[in-house]
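Thought: the user wants the 3D structure for the chain below. I'll pass the sequence to the structure tool as-is, report back what it returns, then summarize two notable features.
Action: structure_tool
Action Input:
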Amino acid sequence: MSMEIPNYVNAGVRKAREKKGKVKLYVDEDGTYYLVIGVSLACRDRNKLMNEIYDEVYKETQEANMMILVVDEKEIVKIEPIGKEIEIEQ
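Observation:
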């Protein structure tokens, strides 16, 4: 059973991939999406990336059921899965 990923989530994933980090996507039972990005960026640049992703997301929708977490690429393996992981191309 495959699920349809909303356009706004796909827009966020595309923007996250631009930084060449590791990107993971999860969805919980309530339909909330969690976009986790592991990159080698300074804290200020991670915050900037998060804002850029939300800018792309809100071009697609007025209301997004989505959380974004940007961490150091070495730390992404420590993130506990939130709901079900959705396979996305890296």
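Final Answer: Structure generated. The CA atoms of residues 48 and 78 lie 23 Å apart. Helices lie at 7-17, 43-60.
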